Amino acid sequence: GGAGFIGSNFVRFHLANSDDEITILDALTYAGSRDTMSDFVDDPRVVFVEGDICDR
């Protein structure tokens, strides 16, 4: 997901170095938090989906 340590840093790097749009899927469990995304979640290039990759 993009709300954990590695994912949120990847998103920051990607936003700083490209014009691409990013869709983030994260279950926001113990490892992820909305707080870690606070500086980029309102960026118009970012779409956040709260969910689990195991959901169907």
Features:
56 residues; alpha+beta; two-stranded parallel sheet; 2 strands; globular
What this model shows, in words?
The chain is of the alpha+beta class. It has one domain (5-50). The chain is 23% helix and 18% strand. It is built from one helix and two strands. A two-stranded parallel sheet has the order 1-2. The two termini are 17 Å apart. The mean pLDDT is 92.
Estimated structural class? alpha+beta
Low-confidence regions = none
Strand order of the largest sheet: 1-2
- Count of structural domains: 1
Order of helices and strands: HEE
Mean pLDDT: 92
How many strands?
2
The biggest beta sheet is recorded as: 2 strands, parallel
Helix-residue proportion:
10-25%
Label the overall shape: globular
Q: Compute the separation of the termini in Å.
A: 17 Å
Number of helices: 1
Radius of gyration over C-alpha positions, nearest whole angstrom: 11 Å
Strand content: 15-25%
Provide a brief overview of the structure:
With 56 residues, the chain is an alpha+beta fold.
Write the layout of secondary structure elements.
Elements: H1 5-17, E1 22-26, E2 46-50
